[in-house]
Amino acid sequence: MILPIYLYGQPVLRKPTEEIEQTPELKQFIADMYETLTQAEGCGLAAPQVGKPWRLFIVDGSELEEDYPECKGFKKTFVNPELLEESEETCSYSEGCLSLPGISENVVRPVSVKMRYLDENFEEHEETFTGFCARIVQHEYDHLEAHVFTDRISPIRKTFVRNKLAAIAKGKVGARYKYKRQ
Asked: Would you kindly state where each structural domain of the chain is located, as residue ranges?
């Protein structure tokens, strides 16, 4: 089932997330998230973006492997993830977000991160992600920490996107996929 993606201004995007337990319904919810992500043509989706204040996100960067070889087969579920380490080396790249349609801005992030997480079967993993995979993981992890990528842009750029964010929050901007606004 395709879920509506919550747009900027929805309170759940700014709400602290809660760790989740394994339940019979969780597998279906994760499957619905993947279906939603595919339909929206994104590379990551966090539970708050579909209305749940849970520590869960999914990624699928496999479509990006031609430009980013490290994304080959990069399709994972992150349950109750924990950021363990970040590289000191950073890079800037233009990011967008399904919850902020029509906005893209350069965001500086570490080039690699180490995470501990559970997969959809609640098996624990500890893994280091680099390059574009690291960027996708950090972007989605930010959603679990009640942040959106525009929180990480320079103050001057924030002034330029302020009106666009307000328009999304007021319901004056839509998206090409199923969404929910205030």
From this structure: 5-180
Which DSSP symbol is given to 69?
Answer: G
* Residues facing residue 60 across a β-bridge: 75
132 touches 71 (CB < 8 A): yes
> Which of 95, 105, 120, 140 does the annotation list as catalytic?
140
Question: Does 140 participate in catalysis according to the annotation?
Answer: yes
Q: Which CATH superfamily is domain 5-180 in?
A: Peptide deformylase (3.90.45.10)
H helix runs in the chain, sequence order: 24-40, 131-144, 155-169
Task: Give the pTM.
Answer: 0.96
Q: How far separated are the first and last CA of the chain, in Å rounded?
A: 22
- CA–CA dist 116, 99 (Å, integer): 25
pLDDT in tens, 116-140: 999 999 999 999 999 999 999 999 9
Q: Which residues contact 13 (CB under 8 A, 6 or more apart)?
A: 6, 48, 49, 99, 143, 146, 148
